[in-house]
């Protein structure tokens, strides 16, 4: 009997094979490491260390041999390069941290390691997670495995490319304004950004602290549920915005009403709200067609579609691009060549050292945001920009609550277009900001959201369906996506040659 390739197994299947000792963690780790080597030109990885990975795999095998059956034990994954790691370098995609080695692991990393997951390396991303195409990485662009001339999305572009190309069974990502959902959508994988505060931010290189949130990226909702169960949970001593809520086993949500998901209409009673603003002229026709047929499928599964309104959707772009740079300008002030980061080799005095170190260390987009952020926080402009943006942020959150009085879940596109060509938006930052229109508002409100593969659009490129839940309803999102995935096979399609 021929064995399916290890890289085609889901996290759940691989975990089962490891638990039955049919495959060892070392064997699985070696298999993925060789795929990573063979597909280096995708630009998905910034660092690997085969010896370190194999040491972790051997330790997992020892636990398995001793009868330990922790759910994710021995399964390999890779981390977005904004999570600090002791065993691997951490650059946040920036020259500023070119030689940085963290003395500790981020909470998300240590939690998954405690479950026995094996780290395969660090994944490419936009510099300090600022971007939508991974082309702001200071090292190299990541490519979309469906068409290597196109972006994989950003900022978690390396995570998305690696999962879609089956170089890893799963990856971590971070989402400040869409960076898990948008790259998941553009590469045909599944990703979830939980409620703000659900996963610890400790050890995540900070971009905009009131928005940053970690989450899993994998091929299915089932796999995301397994991963999120291992990542989420309180970390009150180390992250003051961590939610004081117990860890949840999200896998328990995947079985609808104890019926094993086999009922004819497993989503009966679920009201899905469609914001008019998400279905307007701004969205390209191919994306709308795929999203609408996914919605029709959800209806077949018993859900009811209702119209809702999120009137301030358009304002989420200026609001986000005031608040996120404001917080970034403050967070990035620590990279001065003294406390942290690259220090220029030649300088005349202290001020010159700061200036040269920061100019050399930061790329264009990061510099642009530091300047915008400093400007909107400065005396005389604070009220007009920053304070105003905070007020609208509150109104955006209130609009979601009004919408949730009419529905349980909100659905729509993730991105107004499929993946664009690498370089296409590089000289036009505003064009890139505009592409974030459908992900920013829920981020500003701190709500959980996910992207679920929903078909293909222009050029045969993947299209994702976005599902947004109310606070703490990750389980409901995952179970809805899981029902959709049991009825469709979009999440199982893979790029040619992978
Ligand atoms: N594209 C958005 C930005 O550039 C979101 C990035 C993110 O979520 N990290 O800021």
Description:
The protein has a domain at 6-253: Alpha-Beta Complex (Amidase signature (AS) enzymes). It is 37% helix and 12% strand. The protein is built from 15 helices and 11 strands. A hairpin with a 5-residue loop joins strand 10 and strand 11. The radius of gyration is 21 Å and the shape is globular. Residues 257-261 have low confidence and may be disordered. Bound molecules: glutamine. Glutamine binds next to loops.
Structural features:
single chain; 15 helices; binds glutamine; 498 residues; 11 strands; alpha/beta; Amidase signature (AS) enzymes; 8-stranded mixed β-sheet; 12% strand
Oligomer: single chain
CATH class of the domain at 6-253, please?
Alpha Beta
What sort of overall outline do the alpha carbons produce when their principal axes are compared? globular
**Could you give the distance between the termini?**
22 Å
Bound molecules: glutamine
Order of helices and strands: HHEHEHEHEHEEHEHEHHHHEHHEEH
The helicity comes to 25-40%
Structural class determined from secondary elements: alpha/beta
Poorly predicted parts: 257-261
CATH H-level superfamily of the domain at 6-253: Amidase signature (AS) domain
Report the sheet-strand fraction. Answer: 5-15%
What is the second-level CATH architecture of the domain at 6-253? Alpha-Beta Complex
Number of strands: 11
How is the CATH topology of the domain at 6-253 named? Amidase signature (AS) enzymes
The overall average pLDDT, rounded, is 96
Reported for the largest beta sheet, the result is: 8 strands, mixed
* Biggest sheet strand line-up: 4-6-5-10-11-9-7-8
Number of helices: 15
């Amino acid at each position: 009997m021929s064995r399916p390739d290890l890289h085609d197994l889901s996290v759940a299947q691989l975990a089962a094979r490891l638990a039955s000792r049919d495959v060892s963690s070392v064997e699985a780790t070696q298999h993925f490491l060789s795929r990573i080597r063979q597909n280096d030109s995708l630009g998905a990885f910034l660092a690997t260390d085969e010896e370190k990975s194999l040491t972790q795999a051997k330790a997992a095998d020892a636990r398995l041999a001793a009868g330990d059956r922790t759910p994710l034990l021995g399964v390999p994954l890779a981390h977005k390069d904004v999570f600090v790691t002791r065993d691997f370098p951490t650059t946040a995609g920036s020259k500023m941290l070119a030689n940085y080695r963290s003395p500790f692991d981020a909470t998300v990393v240590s939690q998954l390691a405690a479950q026995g997951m094996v780290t395969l390396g660090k994944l490419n991303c936009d510099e300090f997670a600022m971007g939508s195409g991974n082309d702001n990485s200071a090292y190299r662009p990541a490519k979309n495995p469906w068409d290597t001339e196109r972006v994989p999305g950003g900022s978690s572009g390396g995570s998305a490319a690696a999962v879609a190309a089956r170089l890893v069974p799963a990856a971590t990502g971070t989402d400040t304004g869409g960076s898990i959902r948008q790259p998941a959508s553009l590469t045909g994988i599944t990703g979830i950004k939980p409620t703000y505060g659900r996963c610890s931010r400790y050890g995540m290189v900070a971009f905009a602290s009131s928005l940053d949130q970690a989450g899993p990226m994998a091929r299915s909702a089932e796999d995301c549920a397994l991963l999120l169960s291992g990542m989420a949970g309180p970390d009150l001593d180390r992250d003051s915005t961590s939610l004081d809520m117990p860890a949840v086993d999200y896998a328990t949500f995947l079985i609808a009403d104890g019926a094993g998901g086999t009922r004819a209409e497993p989503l009966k009673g679920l009201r899905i709200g469609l914001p008019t603003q998400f279905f307007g002229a701004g969205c390209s026709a191919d994306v709308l067609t795929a999203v609408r047929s996914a919605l029709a499928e959800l209806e077949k599964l018993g859900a009811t579609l209702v119209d809702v309104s999120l009137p301030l959707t358009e304002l989420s772009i200026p609001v986000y691009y005031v608040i996120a740079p404001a917080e970034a300008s403050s967070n990035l002030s620590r990279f001065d060549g003294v406390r942290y980061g690259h220090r220029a080799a030649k300088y005349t005095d202290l001020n010159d050292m700061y200036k040269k170190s920061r100019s050399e260390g930061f790329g264009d987009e990061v510099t642009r945001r530091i300047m915008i952020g400093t400007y909107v926080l400065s005396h005389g402009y604070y009220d007009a920009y920053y304070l105003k943006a905070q007020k609208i942020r509150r109104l955006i959150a209130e609009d979601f609550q009004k919408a949730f009085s009419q529905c349980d879940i909100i659905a729509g596109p993730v991105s107004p277009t499929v993946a664009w060509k690498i370089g296409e938006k590089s000289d036009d930052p505003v064009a890139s900001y505009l592409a974030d229109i459908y992900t920013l508002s829920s981020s500003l409100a701190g709500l959980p959201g996910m992207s679920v593969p929903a078909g293909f659009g222009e050029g045969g490129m993947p299209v994702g369906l976005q599902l947004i839940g109310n606070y703490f309803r990750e389980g409901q999102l995952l179970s809805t996506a899981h029902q959709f995935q049991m009825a469709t096979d979009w999440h199982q399609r893979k790029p040619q040659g992978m």
